[in-house]
Backbone:
C-alpha cells in the first residue's frame, strides 16, 4: 500500500491549503477498517 501512496482522506483541513489531510494506510489498517475513502495520489502532505 505504501508503494502506491494509498491514503485515506481525513476530515481535518490543512490550514494552509484548506484541503483535507491525507493519512497513509497499510494493509493491516485496511483490514481493520469497515468504511473508508482511499486515494493513491502523490502525497500532498510531503510538499514539493
Residues:
Amino acid at each position: 500500500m505504501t508503494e502506491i501512496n494509498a491514503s485515506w482522506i481525513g476530515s481535518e483541513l490543512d490550514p494552509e491549503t484548506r484541503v483535507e489531510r491525507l493519512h497513509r494506510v497499510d494493509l493491516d489498517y485496511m483490514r481493520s477498517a469497515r468504511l473508508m475513502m482511499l486515494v493513491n495520489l502523490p502525497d500532498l502532505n510531503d510538499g514539493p
